[in-house]
Design goal:
Layout (H helix, E strand, L loop, with lengths): L22 H27 L6 E6 L2 E6 L3 E3 L3 E5 L4 E11 L2 E12 L4 E7 L12 E7 L5 E8 L5 E6 L10 E10 L2
Antiparallel strand pairs: 1-2, 3-5, 4-7, 5-6, 6-11, 7-10, 8-9, 8-11, 9-10
């Protein structure tokens, strides 16, 4: 017998102990299960097959896949140094938060370094989860030409801030240098 789902939902009677189960009943039950599974898979595949529009990412809400829109946001982090002060420096930053993950990117421009030394410090856009130290990467470059000056070492300490050093742990800044930093971290 053909499955009645999705048009109707077929009911099955409970068998008492010792009562024989006919093979046709097993086949009917099997047909209904296959029909339900097929319908569920078809509806999920339809969601997955729908192409994302613009800034969308595939998420799951109560076990159902769905496309969620995410927006790149700008924010104004505080830029300071481990010691001293910058004479002329600025920072532009953007981030995207998807669930508990934040993807962040900074562009720091040090036109005139002043007395700044030790490290460059920027604030994070969203409070980070405190038990982990996430990974960030970056590089220094000459503002005028864009030529690279070397890799950066980034530490997410203290909480809510990134300390930026040259790859060898020394101060990364000087007149006319840019710092590009990006990373992913988990929010609290």
């Amino acid at each position: 017998m053909a499955a009645s789902y999705p048009g109707t939902i077929k009911t099955f009677s409970t068998k008492a102990p010792g009562e024989a189960i006919a093979s046709s009943h097993i086949n009917d039950l099997q047909n209904e299960v296959v029909a339900v599974e097929t319908q569920l898979i078809t509806s999920k595949l339809a969601t997955l097959a729908a192409a994302p529009v613009g800034n969308q990412v595939l998420t799951s809400v109560a076990g159902t896949p769905t496309w969620a829109t995410f927006v790149t946001q700008t924010f104004t982090p505080t830029l300071t140094s481990g010691s001293g002060t910058f004479t002329d420096a600025s920072v532009n930053a953007r981030y995207v938060q998807i669930g508990k993950l934040v993807f962040v990117k900074y562009f720091i421009s040090i036109t005139t370094n002043g007395t700044a030394e030790a490290s460059a410090i920027v604030t994070l856009p969203v409070e980070q989860q405190s038990t982990f130290k996430e990974a960030f990467s970056g590089y220094a470059f000459v503002l005028a030409s864009g030529s690279q000056r070397g890799a950066l070492q980034i530490q997410s300490y203290p909480a809510g801030k990134l300390r930026i050093y040259k790859y060898d742990g020394t101060y990364p800044g000087e007149d006319g240098v840019g710092l590009a930093v990006s990373g992913i971290y988990e929010v609290a």
